Amino acid sequence: MVETLQVEGMNCQHCVNKIEKFVGELQGVSQINVNLAEKNVQVEFNAPTTPEKIKEAILDAGFDVV
């Protein structure tokens, strides 16, 4: 499955790395594409990860999902 989320608060490569780290720790995530210009995060994943878990990981990293 692929989920694309709009994320507020990203403004540098450090932000990208932090989101990649937090989301990448979820079991089942196979690919993460963070786009600073578009302010979105696209995640390719399988069970047991869910869209809700991805949103929670981004929130835990300190960013807002809109």
Can you put this structure into words, describing what you see?
It is globular, with a radius of gyration of 10 Å. It is built from two helices and four strands. It has a four-stranded antiparallel β-sheet with strand order 2-3-1-4, with helices on one face. Helix content is 33%, strand content 33%. The longest helix has 12 residues, at 13-24. It is α+β, with helices and mostly antiparallel strands.
Summarize the structure.
The chain has 66 residues and is an alpha+beta fold. Helix content is 33%, strand content 33%. It contains two helices and four strands; from the N terminus they run E-H-E-E-H-E.
DSSP strand count: 4
Low-confidence stretches: none
Q: Helices and strands: which structural class?
A: alpha+beta
Rg: 10 Å
Total DSSP helices? 2
SS strand fraction: 25-35%
Order of helices and strands: EHEEHE
